[in-house]
Amino acid sequence: MQSSIKYVFILFLVISCKSIKLLEVSKINYNDKSIVFEGRIGENPKEKAKEIYWSGSSIKLNFKGTALKVVLNDENGVNYFNVILDGKPIDVLKLKKGLSTYTLAENLENKAHSIELTKRNEWTYGTTCFYGFELNGIVLAPDNTKKLFIEFYGDSITVGHGNEDYDSGQDRNDGNVTNNYNSYAAITARNLNASYACIARSGIGVTVSWFNMIMPEMYDRLNPNDAESKWDFSKKQPDIVVVNLFQNDSWILNRPKHEEFKRRFGNKKPTEKEIIAAYSNFVKSIRTHYANASIVCLLGDMDITKENSPWPNYVTKTVNDLGDKKVYTCFVPYKQTKKHPRVKDHQVMANQLTTLIKSSILVK
Predict the structure, then answer these.
(1) What's the CA gap between 195 and 189, in Å, rounded?
(2) What is the pLDDT of residue 138?
């Protein structure tokens, strides 16, 4: 009897050791071809890492195994990332300042899984370096390349500023209540199974911003903190570009005492013609980089689209004057509050934009 028990125990140890060997920890480097990135992602050869700046930037890995960790280095310790397991958000990761290893998932069933990290808040919170994964299991092939690619240019609405701030009664921009994954932009991309890039900053405008940079000065950057860091537009051509700007222009142009008003315009507010020209020039800049893309000029859903607002007319006139048959307008009605849209409002915007894209762009 004792020999039988001893034999079973030894057999158990052998099987367990084999299992452990199969699931030993393996390191997946930041540049492994199995990792799929979306957004404008930089590379830091010195650090041997990828650099994450922009809202909505994502890192995805398919694997078979029981646990996964990620190695990140956050500049300021104030960035937040969503953890999405098998297509479902399961956690919000608040990063520490400096280099840390974070457990993303553990005690998983040993079968095929996917993990995705998406940046919730905007680039002003600092850069995050991604060094790679530590996996108990094996790497699987990435998903098939998505057929559609959409790039967004926008302000705080596109960032998703405060879209999950339901409790404070305020309009905070912290990453625990700002979630680009639930912005109209990211929702639209998922609606269409499109890859996604988000070039946005809260407070930015076309002619003037709440700070000293406007979108025509930022849109072509890889690293938004570095004026010398330029994006290679030929690297990946979008099928659709969405421009959602002018909300901040509409406010600041009525504040002649604001320092940015004075710096940009002196004492004289720009004329309607000058406003339209600035918007037109930005759309033309997009077109010079993306000759074949469809461009959607979107406004909403804050007070820029309220009744009798002149701004939709500015956009309509721009599009008409351009005479470009692949440029469209989309105006989302004012939601009757100056607070930033919440997730439910973003869903309304995404539905309207998705419908336009399906009915007017993808059918051609």
Answers:
(1) 7
(2) 97
